[in-house]
């Protein structure tokens, strides 16, 4: 980074990423979908503590952004599956790096904690 304009640009990109992925539940939902298609109830079981109303809201947000795909099947009762879109699949390396970083950082932080 050679000047302050580059810093502002980079920070705005980071701010945008945090707007898209931020909040209490989105990373949990994306991590669950990382492993493949899920029905609503499966997501509800994976994302412990989320209410059905909040899960619906977060899924709609992620769908509107083009990160999550919602597919309905004409069954009785109607089956709905959620999956990552092509754009959502680009988050896999980001989630992998976050997991790696957290594992290392957690280990360092735990070793520095007073006993």
Automatic annotation (TrEMBL):
Entry-linked SUPFAM superfamilies: Winged helix' DNA-binding domain
Transmembrane segments: none
PROSITE patterns in alphabetical order: HTH_HXLR
Keyword Transmembrane: no
Signal peptide positions (record): none
Residue span, HTH hxlR-type domain: 7-110
Transcription is among the record's keywords: yes
Keywords: DNA-binding, Transcription, Transcription regulation
Domain of life: Bacteria
InterPro entries registered for this protein in UniProt: HTH_HxlR, WH-like_DNA-bd_sf, WH_DNA-bd_sf
PANTHER family named among the record's database cross-references: TRANSCRIPTIONAL REGULATOR, TRANSCRIPTIONAL REGULATOR, MARR FAMILY
Protein name: Winged helix-turn-helix transcriptional regulator
């Amino acid at each position: 980074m050679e000047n302050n304009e580059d810093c502002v640009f980079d920070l705005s990109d980071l701010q945008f990423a945090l707007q898209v992925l931020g909040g209490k539940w989105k990373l949990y939902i994306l991590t669950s979908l990382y492993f493949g298609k899920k029905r609503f109830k499966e997501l509800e079981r994976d994302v412990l503590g989320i209410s059905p109303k909040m899960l619906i809201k977060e899924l709609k947000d992620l769908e509107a952004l083009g990160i999550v795909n919602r597919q309905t099947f004409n069954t009785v009762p109607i089956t709905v599956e959620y999956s990552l879109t092509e754009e959502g699949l680009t988050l896999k390396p980001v989630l992998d790096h976050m997991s790696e970083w957290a594992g290392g950082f957690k280990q360092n932080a735990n070793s520095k904690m007073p006993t």
